[in-house]
């Protein structure tokens, strides 16, 4: 039995930070169907005016941010004293938990800026835990190539296709995220194994793919696929493609979001606002 395609979703143009232009692949109303994931943004532009303003200092509470850079350089600083430079092929994993105030600013004046930011929810029991931050250099992110020539970037979780196994750069409890980037040549296929019950998403950011067992037309560039939670997964590409696979264990908890705060109740959101306004954020 194969995982079924439940939904095809197209992202929308958006602007965030100090005028950074991007594609918001998903977020906002109805985000429960992507649980445990809250948002996926894609930035992909060579026009410096679209990214030069960056993301000046701003707060987060209650979730994790995952930034995967394909091209360009972004500098991170936060109120805990962390600093880091995200480079092409690198990964940044920030656990906001009870609170972090950070900035993400481009460290370039021209050239291509390309990558993704994913928001991953935290369970209620750890939303007020300690915040943390970690940059992963490109060499710290495992890569492998399958017998069909598919290059796999193993950002998080555990990749297993029955032929290769590789632990990702990051492992997380509770949500058990799997995050892979597949670079698929023409006439290739890949069959990643995922835990039963994991919410699974595919985002095609180059080329097109076919999902085995589905009768719809090929999934084209800039389309997100939401899959059923059980069954095998096999992806084929006749013409070649680049695809993100994002999967995780649903938390099945209430999601109450107010901008950069994601909690379980309205009262917790109001407390986050009070803490931030009083200068007690993250303490």
Sheet-strand content, in percent, reads: over 45%
Name of the top-level CATH class: Mainly Beta
Give the tally of β-strands: 25
| Spatial order of strands in the largest sheet | 1-21-19-23-17-14-13
Uncertain residue segments: none
Helix-strand category: mainly beta
When the domains are counted, the total is 1
Principal-axes shape call: globular
The CATH topology assignment is Jelly Rolls
In the CATH hierarchy, what is the architecture at level 2?
Sandwich
SSE topology sketch:
Elements: E1 5-10, E2 12-16, E3 20-26, E4 37-45, E5 55-60, E6 63-71, E7 74-78, E8 83-86, E9 91-95, E10 100-106, E11 113-121, E12 132-136, E13 143-145, E14 151-156, E15 158-160, E16 165-167, E17 178-184, E18 188-190, E19 199-207, E20 210-211, E21 223-227, E22 235-237, E23 241-248, E24 256-258, E25 261-263, H1 266-277
Antiparallel strand pairs: 1-21, 2-3, 3-4, 4-11, 5-10, 6-9, 6-11, 7-8, 7-10, 9-12, 13-14, 14-17, 15-16, 17-23, 18-22, 19-21, 19-23, 20-22, 24-25
Structure description:
This protein has 283 residues and is mainly β. The chain has a single domain, classed as Jelly Rolls (Sandwich). The protein has one helix and 25 strands. The chain has one helix at 266-277; strands at 5-10, 12-16, 20-26, 37-45, 55-60, 63-71, 74-78, 83-86, 91-95, 100-106, 113-121, 132-136, 143-145, 151-156, 158-160, 165-167, 178-184, 188-190, 199-207, 210-211, 223-227, 235-237, 241-248, 256-258, 261-263. The strands form six sheets. It has a seven-stranded antiparallel sheet with strand order 1-21-19-23-17-14-13, with no helix packed on it. The longest helix has 12 residues, at 266-277. The radius of gyration is 18 Å and the shape is globular. It starts with a strand and ends in a 6-residue tail after the last helix. The mean pLDDT is 96. This is Pirin family protein. Its EC number is 1.13.11.24. Residues 20-120 form the Pirin N-terminal domain.
